[in-house]
Design goal:
Strand content: 15-25%
Structural class: alpha/beta
Radius of gyration: 19 Å
Strand order of the largest sheet: 1-2-3-8
Number of strands: 11
Order of helices and strands: HEHHEHEEHEEEHEEHEEH
Number of helices: 8
Shape: globular
Length: about 240
């Protein structure tokens, strides 16, 4: 009711929707709440735009978790057209939101962008995100200690949060229409990220594999993003 009232009282030109339950652990601990937030929450935003807004462009934050990760050995980058096969329930909720929101907006002639954001970090970021979790675990290790990592050979594409925000603002200014990857286009193994963090802490550590799960790779193909940003710069 509060959201409905808010929309009825305002006319927006742009709306950025970031609200979600994100961490895999939090989603798994309360999947019903995750669906209410990540799927139904998006539906309510889309329905209010359709019903109350004359000309509102929507940015919907999605995730690389909607993709089927590739094997690290081939270093394949994920295009917007790559297979969609989430391995986490979090990824499934975000894919459901995408598959509901985009056709619905198109059906009513509304414009918008779905940004599939790959990994990101910031100094204010808290656990259970990857970088702050690694930072704390390494900080607690004694000099020369061993860090056990799940899938230490898995590859992730990580940007700083400020760059992600800049990309979203450029997409907003140009009112990009469609689905687009937001990432660096470069991958780093989790063990490499851990070693870099250890070096920042001036600490020598050992890294070992905690289990034998097959590693995966999530690296963004940012061809479309770079093309759009270049066009924006020229304009």
């Amino acid at each position: 009711a509060a959201v409905h009232s808010w929309f009825e009282m305002n006319q927006f030109t742009h709306l950025i929707h970031l609200a979600a339950i994100v961490s895999v652990d939090r989603v798994n601990s309360d999947p019903l709440r995750a669906c209410e937030t990540n799927v139904l929450g998006v539906y309510h935003i889309c329905s209010e735009i359709i019903r109350t807004q004359k000309n509102c462009w929507l940015f919907l934050a999605s995730t690389a978790h909607v993709y089927q990760g590739s094997a690290p050995v081939n270093g394949e980058k994920l295009r917007e057209s790559s297979p969609l096969k989430p391995i986490t329930f979090y990824g499934q909720t975000k894919l459901m939101a995408e598959q509901m929101a985009w056709p619905l907006l198109q059906q009513y002639g509304k414009s918008g962008c779905i940004g599939r954001i790959f990994s990101f970090t910031h100094q204010s970021q808290k656990e259970p995100y990857l970088v702050p979790t690694l930072w704390k675990r390494i900080q607690l290790l004694p000099e020369g200690g061993t860090l056990k990592l799940i899938n230490h050979k898995s590859v992730r594409d990580i940007l700083d949060a400020e760059t992600v925000v800049d990309c979203i603002l450029h997409l907003l200014c140009g009112k990009y229409s469609g689905i687009i990857n937001i990432g660096s286009g470069e991958g780093k193994k989790i063990e490499e990220i851990a070693k870099h963090i250890a070096a920042l802490q001036n600490k020598q550590i050992q890294i070992c594999q905690a289990n034998q799960s097959p590693p995966d790779s999530l690296i963004a193909d940012v061809t479309n993003l770079k093309k759009f940003l270049l066009e924006q710069a020229v304009q």
